[in-house]
Amino acid sequence: MDHHHFEGKDIPHIKLDSKTTVKELVEIYANSGFNARQLGEAAKLYQKMIAEDATICLTVAGAMTPVGFGGIIKTLLEKGFVDWIVATGANVYHEDHFAWGLPVKQGHFQVDDNILYEKEIVRIRDVYVKFYETLELQDNIIQNIFKDKLSQEPFTTAEFCNVLGRISKEKSKFPEKSFLTTAYDLDVPVYVSTLKDSSLALNLAVHRLKNQAFNLDFVREIIEQAAIVYNSKKSGVLELGGGVPKNTAQQTGPLLDQILRKEHGGQNYIVQITDARPDTGGLSGATLQEGKSWGKVQDSHENLITVYADATIAFPILALYALANEEPREPKRIYKNLGKYYETLQESAIKIPEKFAEILKKSDINVD
Fold it and tell me: Which residues on neighbouring strands pair with residue 190, listed in sequence order?
């Protein structure tokens, strides 16, 4: 796209008053500059995903749920604005505190952590949880849930979170305070990008030491995720932060094209909210346009917007704009269709492109 001209919108002299709405605020952002403009355009792109009935994946890195943002995720699920989720284990683990009524408090970041340790207070930046009254009780809940579940046959993290959502719905004090219970109700798959890198998996160690095996079928999991994208007319991602959740959603394209050779092309839309820099080479800061070279996105020129901002600031604005502009959608109920989606990939043949066949023939690599 050629931007080498003086034909853009006039920058407005912004006026705010006590009646300014979030819709008007996003318009102000979109007509301004820098990351305010990016946030305004990102909010509109998310609205576009919803309006065009894209299958939308929400990826959640870092620790968004300890600051209460699981409630925003829950609302988006209820409105049909998120169809599947990839989250860190921390976001799933800490979300469950609210359902069970375990204490999570505002604290402070300018503290002596030796003193906090002595007082049995655990700190997540400026959020406090109690060692026994929060973490140990949560650990006990997870250990009790999985002492007789998911040990008979291989499972995925979507199945793991479905169990958590069901038990929290049936047994917890405040099931309405968890996006996991809503995901269970609406058949929304919730995948944990790296289960072993979280307290969720640490609690399974208690049972493993008693010779109870847990078999995570991570290959079936990545096939399911690619199958969701493959079985969608249009597919988009809303990325909060980067990390493994971001890659988990975006690697669906390379699995479909590079490995399974489906000539799919990847995601139709992606909105990324990150504070990571692209020049360090890490995926968290990698530009969405770079993903085109991997087959992660359909087009490097459109429907890709990165907002360089703290997700705790930008996400509520983006979500509120969607809620203010779009009518609720019917849930896609993806979880109960995962088996059918999987079969569509299982039944289709993998074709080797002629160009690669020639390269393979000329290669002296042999692992037979």
Answer: 85
